[in-house]
Specification:
single chain; alpha+beta; 4-stranded mixed beta sheet; 3-stranded antiparallel beta sheet; 3 helices
């Protein structure tokens, strides 16, 4: 095996076909997955302040038939898991989002979302780390910097970390 790359719900394994067959590699992966230890230590906990004044907040509360305070209470209640870091540097897919907040992505994505925008879509929430296009519903903003290119590692969140939002 040369490299294993974790995805949201999969792992891609790069291998040298001169060194292993697909069958032998599959058998080795099954043996390893059966032996994996339970995660005893939870990922780091990040407390993230959010100002709930996002561009889509009014539309989201109307669509979900919630008050602003109910939405904030629901969004800040869970401790979210960082499922995956990707899309752009520093973007973390966080979840699961409470069922009451599930919304499909916007029909028309924005050409530019400001960094720090806190958003929801599907069963996830996240914070845009950089100015980028995006199709999630903007419910707030945070001043926490998620991508620090001069740091090692450059991303604040890592897969397995935990995130707790609170209203600022």
């Amino acid at each position: 095996m040369r490299q294993a790359v974790a995805g949201y719900a999969s792992v891609t394994v790069h291998f040298d076909p001169d060194q292993a067959t697909v069958g032998s590699l599959g058998a080795a992966i099954k043996r390893l997955s059966a032996k994996r230890p339970k995660l005893e230590v939870p990922g780091r906990l990040h407390r993230i302040p959010v100002v709930y004044d996002g561009e889509d907040l009014e539309d989201v509360t109307r669509t979900l038939n919630l008050s602003r305070d109910e939405l904030i209470a629901m969004h800040t209640r869970p401790i979210y898991r960082v499922f995956l870091v990707g899309f752009v540097p520093g973007w973390a897919y966080l979840g699961p989002l409470p069922e009451e907040l599930y919304l499909p992505r916007r029909k028309v994505p924005r050409m530019m979302v400001p960094p720090g925008s806190v958003a929801i879509a599907g069963r996830q929430t996240g914070i845009y780390p950089l100015p980028t296009p995006g199709g999630w519903h903007l419910i707030g903003r945070s001043s926490v910097k998620l991508f620090l290119p001069d740091s090692d590692p450059p991303c604040l969140f890592r897969a397995g970390d935990r995130v707790k939002f609170f209203a600022a």
